[in-house]
Amino acid sequence: MPHLLSIDQGTTSSRAMVFDAGLRPLASAQHEFPQHYPASGWVEHDPSDLWVSVAGVARAAVEKAGIPARDIAGIGITNQRETTLLWDRRTGQPLHRAIVWQDRRTADLCARLRAEGHEPMVAARTGLLLDPYFSGSKLQWLLDHVDGARARARRGELAFGTVDSWLIWNLTGGRVHATDATNAARTLLFNIAENRWDEEICALFDIPMQLLPEVRDCAADYGATRADLFGREIPILGVAGDQQAATVGQACFSPGMMKSTYGTGCFALLNTGADRVASSNRLLTTIAYRLGGRTTYALEGSIFIAGAVVQWLRDGLGLIRHASETQALAEAADPGQDLVLVPAFTGLGAPYWRPECRGAVFGLTRNSGPAELARAALESVGFQTRDLLEAMRADWPDAGGVLRVDGGMASSGWTMQFLSDILGAPVDRPAVTETTALGAGYLAGLQAGLCPPPEEFARAWSLERRFAPARPAPEREARYARWKTAVKATMEVAG
């Protein structure tokens, strides 16, 4: 029986899952890797950690599934987006640590380009803002700071890629330098209207176009793995950035459908179909997926800190040992205290886009303790999600009334109930919450001919639980107003 192997390379860990032909999960393996913080606001990964962890969990998942490699019909890849790598085409050796999407070192460069009036042109072509979040300014920084890199790039000796390209390169033994349309759309270098790398924007960042990978559909032929990795070559048949893969896994194939994924960050996508909607509320216009050469667009809101705020409680403050402890703490919090945590540890994302902001806590008293901080941390995710959905509905009134959720934090019933309460709308949690890996597996299965077309796949989507709003509207609005006041104060302190 044919199976599918899904590789999910995330910000803090790499994971692999094996699905059967009906997209039922059979086995998984996961491995965390170190984060590097060389300066305030800087975040890096060792490229070898990304590759070694992926190779390890992929083999481990196949072994756990108890199937021979010959039964794997294809591999799907999904990945943390915007993270930027540069490597030698001949040796495959990286020239620097990967600069992670959270990294803010290029804030001054982006501010200068905005001041020079370039943002309207860049936004019209890429759907993105001039922000250090995206790959373009990170790649310029590498070319500026790695000795001889730009000259070598012009000679065609170097390759740039987001994490998907780095994994494809290593999986295929350097035979394929490619990316998919969704990852390309997050680089700040890709014209999403014309589906091509944009020469003028590359020139703006002084980026030689010889560096760039070939852009393919999300379900396409990306070559085959080296035979020594699994004992035989396995075709790579699907690629999508993590949030777009989750959109596919949530079967959000109809315009107006929305999903929100809660991992390290939080990312909400609204399917706008063939309409490339320009946001008036500083949301991003992006590619949801490209299948059969046809592009489906989306509005996206990006929150930099979601699950990462729970990691901060664990690793930074030592208040918990395991993420699962936060729900019990939140439930035990004093209802008479009303802490508000603005988790702007690496700046504020959509719809504010203030990279210079830093985190703040409001409402502390002598009686504030771990329980109150844990509750405020979980509530911050709901508040930020409402910020995104308010902006989406202002840009595109046809947005649906139900939000589909997934990712690690979606398993917390307390957090999802608060999310429904603060949105004043239903929140649907699917039977399979690991929709990012599911979406990548589906794309590979679609290309392999194992999986049905999108409309049939959508009919098979299964609901595990619907959370309905339970708080009175006046309480909801008062809580949200307090959040908005806290965000405003945080931005005022940042200047």
Give structural attributes.
495 residues; alpha/beta; Nucleotidyltransferase, domain 5; 7-stranded mixed sheet; 5-stranded mixed sheet; 17 helices; 37% helix; globular; kinase; nucleotide-binding; Carb_kinase_FGGY_CS; glycerol metabolism
The coarse silhouette is globular
Largest beta-sheet details: 7 strands, mixed
CATH classification class of the largest domain: Alpha Beta
Number of strands: 22
Question: How much strand content do the residues show?
Answer: 15-25%
The separation of the N and C termini measures 60 Å
Low-confidence stretches: none
Count of separate structural domains: 2
Classify the secondary structure makeup into a structural class: alpha/beta
Given the structure, what is the number of helices? 17
What's the CATH H-level homologous superfamily of the largest domain? ATPase, nucleotide binding domain
Largest sheet, order of strands side by side? Answer: 16-17-15-14-20-21-22
Q: Kindly identify the CATH topology of the largest domain.
A: Nucleotidyltransferase, domain 5
Percent of residues in helices comes to 25-40%
Using only CA atoms, what is the Rg? Answer: 22 Å
CATH architecture of the largest domain: 2-Layer Sandwich
Q: What is the typical, i.e. mean, pLDDT?
A: 93
Domain Carbohydrate kinase FGGY N-terminal: 5-249
Binding site for sn-glycerol 3-phosphate: 11, 81-82, 133, 242
Pathway: Polyol metabolism; glycerol degradation via glycerol kinase pathway; sn-glycerol 3-phosphate from glycerol: step 1/1
InterPro entries: ATPase_NBD, Carb_kinase_FGGY, Carb_kinase_FGGY_CS, FGGY_C, FGGY_N, Glycerol_kin
